[in-house]
Amino acid sequence: MTLFPAQAVSRVRILVAGDVMLDRYWFGEVERISPEAPVPVVRVARREDRLGGAANVARNIVALGAQASLLGLVGNDEAGDKVRALVLEAGIHPCLVTDPVAPTTLKMRVLGRQQQLLRVDFEEGPGAQGLAELESRARELVAQHDILVLSDYAKGALAQVDALIRMAREAGVPILVDPKGHLYQRYRGATMITPNRAEMQEAVGRWQTEQELEERAQKLRVDLGLDALLVTRSEQGMTLFTKDGRQHTDAHAHEVFDVSGAGDTVLATLAVTRAAGLDWFDAVRWANRAGGVVVGKLGTSVVTAEELS
């Protein structure tokens, strides 16, 4: 495998647009069951906030040594203020739009003895004013970057994803998409999409053989006008489909501790290595290695260039 291109990576500028969220963790000890209901009582000892969704993609890009700008929506609330502070702390260039009507998407996880006991989500769809401002900011920013990364968590920030793809194509900027749902026609014209196994099955149906997967993946790639399609397959590794055919890399053998945010790390590594000049399959192999590292960490985490090397 080609060496990690650290020197070239430092010059890479990536715009990440999509669903920004705050991941909030409450860590504690569980020593008894509640007398009010058959649930554990967690005595909270530590609290931690981390960037999630598109913000975690940007955080991973910076951790790998590249430059990242983050375009997304936050609310006029405490969680939005925390996102802004964490973005600056991470060294990400903030291009955040404050939505006047919708709160910041927040995922709160309660953990006892390093095990997740409960997750509570706070989210609402964005307002028209916030979406219009996001699209306007994108028009200013896209041409200033080497790659556009679209991180779709189906929270609404990418409701106008077709317009963002069109802007990037007109500017000659490649587009990498982490898709959501099964309506993949909305991603038509992107350079690459990276569905996981379940998302791919939702889009093209279940396959029985590798040949059947290849036929359906290549048809989808051609229908959407993609250069490449990458299916991430957990313990089965990753399979890349391009006009040159199918290339597969096996998963790195690591103990899986937490898969939260693993797709963000894969997407970030793909964008960084591709923008640094690596071919598709070398970029995929570095992304595969990064994904293998991050699933050994607790919660939404990052992988550094030093860890990969």
CATH topology: UDP-N-acetylmuramoyl-L-alanine:D-glutamate ligase
User: What top-tier CATH class fits best?
Assistant: Alpha Beta
CATH architecture: 3-Layer(aba) Sandwich
Written as H for each helix and E for each strand, in order along the chain, the element string is HEEEHEHEEEHEHEEHHEEEHHH
Major sheet details: 9 strands, mixed
Q: Which tags fit this structure?
A:
309 residues, alpha/beta, UDP-N-acetylmuramoyl-L-alanine:D-glutamate ligase, 9-stranded mixed beta sheet, 4-stranded mixed beta sheet, 10 helices, 13 strands, 35% helix, 30% strand, globular, phosphotransferase activity, alcohol group as acceptor, heptose-1-phosphate adenylyltransferase activity
Describe, in plain words, how this protein is organized in 3D:
By secondary structure, this protein is of the alpha/beta class. It has a single domain (6-25, 51-105, 124-303), classed as UDP-N-acetylmuramoyl-L-alanine:D-glutamate ligase (3-Layer(aba) Sandwich). The chain has helices at 6-9, 54-63, 78-90, 128-141, 161-171, 197-204, 210-224, 262-275, 280-294, 305-308; strands at residues 13-18, 20-33, 40-53, 67-75, 93-99, 105-112, 115-122, 147-151, 175-178, 192-193, 228-232, 238-242, 245-249. The strands form two sheets. It has a nine-stranded mixed sheet, with helices on both faces. The chain has a four-stranded mixed sheet with strand order 3-2-6-7. β2 (20-33) and β3 form a beta hairpin. α2 crosses α8 and α8 (262-275) packs antiparallel against α9. The protein starts with 5 loop residues before the first helix and ends with a helix. The mean pLDDT is 91.
